[in-house]
Amino acid sequence: MMKKLGLRGSFAAAAAAGLLVLTSCGGGEEAPAGGDEAAQDGGLTEVSIGVIPIVDVAPIYLGVQEGIFEEHGLDVELTLAQGGAAIIPAVQSGDFDFGFSNITSLVIGQAQGLPLQVVAPGPQTTGEAGDDFSSLLVPEDSDTESIADLEGDRVAVNTLNNINDTVLKEGMRQEGGDRDSMDLVEVAFPDMIGQLESGNVDAIMAVEPFATMAMDTGAREIYSPYAEPIEDLTIAAYFASTERIEEDPETVDAFIAAMKESQQYAEDNPDDAKAILSEYTEIEPEVVDELTMPQFPQQVTRDSIQRIIELSEETGLIDEAVNIDELLHEDA
C-alpha cells in the first residue's frame, strides 16, 4: 500500500505569486526593522520567508524552533509553496522578504533581469551516488538500467526549467545520450508515485521524502542526479531582492547570520533535522528513519553554481551567461 504524505495547515491562494500556502510558523510582536539592533531594543523584526515542503528546508525550521532567529532579532513566518520558481515572483513583489529556490531558477530569474541575489546557502549533495537525497527512479520491472536508457522517455520533475532539468540533461550527456531527448513533464512531488505506478511517466526525479517513499513502493533507483553530474553541487539557496538588500542591510545581515547558524545546527544534529520534519509534513515515522539527508553547509559551492550558469546557457534556459558575482551576495 502506498504511503501518503500530507501537508499540515489549510490551503489558501496567494494570488500575486500563484502560491499554495500550506502552513506557517513563527510569531511575535512587530518591531522596527534592524535585525540584531531591533533585538537589543527589546523587539523583533518580522520577516516572511517562502519555502518548500521538503527536507532541504529543515535547517530554517530548526533555527526557528531553537530560537536562533530570535537571537538575531528576527520573528520568522514560514510559508510553504510547491516550488522555488513560484517563490521568486513573490519575493520580487514583496509578499516575502526572503525565499528559498533552486539555483537554476535563480539563474534564470537574474538572466531575465529580475533584481535578486543569493544571500545564504541551502542544501548540498552528499556527493555519494546511491546515497543522496535525490533519486532518478523507474518501476521495479522496468528494463531501464541507466539514465542513457531514458532517451525519448517521459520523466517527471516537480517544476520545469529548474535545476532538475539541468542535472538530468547533463547526466544524460555524460552517459553518452542525447540530452534533449528526454520528455520532461511537470508533476508535483506528492503525485509522482501514482504517475509512475500508472505508467503515465517512465521515470521520476524525486527528492526526499518522496524518493524513499517511492522506493518503499518498489521503485528502483538508476541514477543520483544531484551527486553524479556536478561535483559538490549546491542545489538551492535563500535569496532576497536587491532592493531589500540595499534598503535594509541590517535585517539581511541578521538573516544571513541566523541562516548559517541554523545550517550548522542541522549539520551537527542530524536527528533533530529529521525530527523537525513533523512540523511541516506528515511523514510516517518509519519513512523518516530511512531518509537520506543532504549536507547543510555554511557557504555555497561557487564552482558548482558557475557550472549551473554554464549549463543553463548551453541548454537554452538562458540566452547569455549571468555574472556569478552579481548573483551571489558577498556573504553567501
Overall form: globular
Largest sheet: 5 strands, mixed
Total strand segments: 12
Strand order of the largest sheet: 4-3-5-12-6
Overall pLDDT, averaged?
Answer: 87
Q: Which terms summarize this structure?
A:
332 residues, alpha/beta, D-Maltodextrin-Binding Protein, domain 2, 5-stranded mixed β-sheet, 12 strands, globular, disordered N terminus, SsuA/THI5
Describe the structure.
This protein is of the alpha/beta class. The chain folds into two domains: 12-124 and 233-327, D-Maltodextrin-Binding Protein, domain 2, CATH 3.40.190.10; 134-223, Periplasmic binding protein-like II (D-Maltodextrin-Binding Protein, domain 2). The protein is 35% helix and 18% strand. The chain has helices at 35-40, 58-65, 68-71, 84-93, 103-111, 163-174, 192-197, 210-216, 242-247, 249-268, 270-275, 285-290, 302-314, 324-327, and strands at residues 12-14, 19-21, 45-51, 74-80, 98-102, 116-121, 134-138, 154-157, 183-186, 203-207, 220-223, 236-241. The strands form three sheets. Strands 4-3-5-12-6 form a five-stranded mixed sheet, sandwiched between helices. Strands 9-8-10-7-11 form a five-stranded mixed sheet. Strand 1 and strand 2 (19-21) form a beta hairpin. Helix 2 crosses helix 10 and helix 5 (103-111) crosses helix 13 (302-314). It is globular and about 60 Å long. Mean pLDDT is 87; it is low at 1-40.
